[in-house]
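Exam revision sheet. Question 4 asks you to relate a sequence to its structure. Input first:
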Amino acid sequence: MSDFHAPSYSVRPAIASDRGQIQWLLSNFAWEAPGRSRLSKALAPAQSPTLFHYWGLGFLIAIGISLSSLLGLKFLPAIVGLASCGIAFSFVKIIFSQEWKKFWIIEQEGRIVACGKLCHSDTYSVLYDVIVLSQYRRQGIGSALVKHVIQHASKPLYLACFPDKIGFYTQLGFTPARSSELSFVLRHELGISICPHVVPLVLR
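Answer key, structure tokens:
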């Protein structure tokens, strides 16, 4: 792997306008490695609703009200109302999602080519979703991103990876952590409960 010295690349925390590119990067990884996408699904930043989403929501509500009028059903408006509240809550959650603030990115000429998500707890940090676009790999970009994030993480810093990535992270100072020694909350945060094949690592 070559050293990362390209002046055209910059490492920085994500900003709100990066959300679309980060989502695309995560989605691209899920398509590229579908067997590994379960970890990313819970970590991907929410997409902002589009006009199409709002039209769809209005269409569903209109259908419910129309059926209620035609069939004379008194309970249907209540059901539609509850469903609408649930959908509206989901949209509000999406609109105000702040997950993008937890990402660090590497950018080249306005294009995000790598990302990683750093989450802080009271006593530790967790690193998620270290992803580099396929055409930019083996250039030291992933290592540079992780090294930069390490500087901003409280220790210990945990992550979970698949066995074939252990070597990459051990070169950066991480060591295997025993799952039995991790708290239930941390095991859940690392995705071990949903993906038992991942290996927890720690940097102290």
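Marking note for examiners. Confidence is low (pLDDT under 50) at residues 37-54, 91-96.
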